[in-house]
Amino acid sequence: MLTRLAGGRVIDPDNRRDAVGDVFIRDGRIVHAPAGGTADETYDVSNKIVMAGAIDIHSHIAGNNETMGRLLRPEQRYPSGVFHPGHHPQPLGTWNTFETGCIYALMGFTTVVEPAVLPHQALQAHLELADIPIIDKATLTVLGNDDFLLNLLRRREGAGAIRDYVAWTLATSHGLGIKVINAGGAAAFKDNLRAFSLDDEVPEYGVTSRAIVRSLQQAVHELRLPHPLHVHCNNLGLPGNVETAMATIEAAEGLPLHLAHLQFYGYGKEGPRGFSSGGARLAAAVNAAKSVTVDVGQVMFGQTVTISCDVLRQFNARNSARPKKWIICDGDSNGAGIVPYDYRATDFFNAVQWAVGLELFLLTNDPWRVFFTTDHPNGAPFTAYPDILALLMDRNLRAEWMSRLPKEALDVTTLASIAREYTLNDIAIMTRAAPAKLLGLADRGHLGIGALADIAVYEPRRDKAKMFREAALVFKGGQLVVRDGAVLRHPFGQALRTQPEHDRTIDARMRDYYQERYGLSPDFMTVAETAIGRPEPFETVPCLN
Amino acid sequence: MAEAWIRGKSVPLEAAVAEAASLIAASRLPVITGLGTDIAGSRAAIRLAQHVGGVIDHMHSEALLRNLDVMREACMMTTTPTEAHVRADFLLLVGPGLIEAWPALPTTLFRERRTVWLCPEKAAKTANEHRNIGVVGDDPADLPVMVAILRARCAGRPVAKTPIAIETLDALVVELKKSRFGVAVWSAAQLDGLTIEMLCGLVNDLNESTRFSSLPLAAPDNAYAVQQVAAWMTGFPVRTGFCRGIPEHDPWRFEASRLIDSGEADCAIWISAYGTRSPTWKRDVPLVALTGSPDLLKADVAITVGRPGIDHDAVDYLSATATLAAVSAHKPSTAMSAAGVLGKIAAALPAARPC
Predict the structure, then answer these.
(1) Predicted local confidence at residue B354, as pLDDT
(2) DSSP one-letter code for A382
(3) Does domain B65-217 sit in CATH 2.60.120.10?
(4) How confident is the model at residue A356 (pLDDT cuts 50, 70, 90)?
């Protein structure tokens, strides 16, 4: 069947297209306009905006830690969600897998990456992802606090062994890429260190955080994984940590490196309260380091739950929990810290955090290297995206927000001086074209011939937040799933993974290691495709040539 | 093939499924409980509850919720059995029921580290069986006060009256403080909530100067895994109802036995695929029993289901790693899984109520 989206403004930066025209869909893919033929069905999208489905590169939507968050905060709600007419007067927004998929789809998102899956817990993460409807998913597998890697480094076994281990871990956990979270910090915390920075050594292993990041960055690069090493730096949230982020950017040394939720590292120590924005400096550093990509991790005001494998940071933050309850888990490699938090517009520190995020968005000059995230749910739930997009596109709206914030907070930032407004083309790059490129998803993030027909159609409105909150139409793989802000059906997508080639002798070595260390076979951590409970749960993304 | 009975009479599976569906369809509030089942069975049970506006509860909810209530009202520091195995230099075993909760506990964790067992059930016998373990306290009833004393002494506070010599407890406090990575182990089936909260507070306090964590042992019948599935699918733990078309959690309102004994619920679906347990409610309600053993044949509908990980492949909670893991069938059989039977029952029901 041939479907035609007729007469919309098609914004497709990957194909340098921003013009009124048609998009044709057949068998779930974008196809050429038929020569003289007519479509079987036509959607009139004149005066509407047509983009590829959006891609979120960093959102904690599944896995043991996320579910511990649900259990810790059963009262937590998304501020929007699926309307249950006859049962409840407004969308309920219960924090579960079903609502997660539906709300993403309502906003026009069709692919989302869960960025922190510990190898031993990968099966649960994939089971949860499989219960999230509509969108496709992917995971990043977390290494860098695991005894095996730290031992490889201590023994200086060389790049080949690390590559094989990384590939083996990806194969068992079905990840799309590799993430490192406070490299060495969780291991150091088990030895009672309470602070850990880039050049600190992990006790007993004698390996620095820098060396861990460097070795993983190199392994990911040499394995030709499409997504560069995804780094959660040391010293998250601390005053003065802009120095750590700058040092980490410098440590990239020209190789691809992705720094996650940079806002949480954008803090100086200036000002009367010893806490200030380092956003402008950090943005300049990002602009200069062409091999580095970043996502922002914007903070928005309201109640949320912070969920992180950075156990050390979460332990140190536990006494600031709002409300006062938390979970800290020392895991086998990284672990988990779950700390509820209420970002308040009246709070000096929270207001600075909000401004730092916007500074990073607005002072970085390449939307192909700066990605749109709230580090859901850490800076804010992903349901805040439409409001952030509106803030980026409208300086008057920003001024209005700033007028409600503590002046002393804004005084230690540069936000008030920034006039830039994002265009729709910038938004399409940042949320579609660039993420697809960063993740190596050749058939996503654009509307060229052969692309997957993941398409979002928006009604242009003065209220940009409303425009992005309720897509007019969303197609997933060519199937209409959202119409006028309502979910029509709930197909289940796939999880995207890579399977790099590697030397299989690592299999026996890992078997021996698990037997010796834990008295167990590593089979417990293998994600069996048959265990997921859905047909064809995975799609394999090719490695780079 | 599943074996099936209607009121004690052997019938083909299809007849039993049809009878179960008609009992559920005729019910105003069905309760799906027991929930001793694998991930697939949990998913199917929750979907069925959503479909019919029912309630989900687990046979071990009391223990599950005891730990959960401490966590969601206060704080908890935990670690994994594997990390405890490789790192712990001190083990504080708290109260009875630990080996029952995790039979592999002695072989996994009792070796090569200083271990103290606080108030085991039979102190002399325990001391005799595990000679390298120090036993402190001999009456589990003393636990609440013992844990409170330890916490007070750790904080340097005086205590008035102690069930055992204060010197013994102070010596234990010294041990706790000098451990480099200590782990407290308990089974919530045997402790009250306030004791667990006090213990978690003690662990937190110890982290002011050293590292200490804890290992709450999971309740049986895959309870922990079922709780995880409930949380991700509904946003809530077990004791969640869909009576109003939306998931709502209330530990009192959605307790299965209370709902049945009070007459609020008028149909029960009991799932015990691991095979050993029967319902504990008193009142007679239409009962659909899905079990791994033929002990409920007299139920209105009884269907034997395969044992997860024995008769069929499954995903279960693994005590050794505290993770969900795929388990291959040890003795594959043709027995149908609980998920398969629940799916058939759901398919035989009228379309879902309009939402």
Answers:
(1) 45
(2) G
(3) no
(4) very high
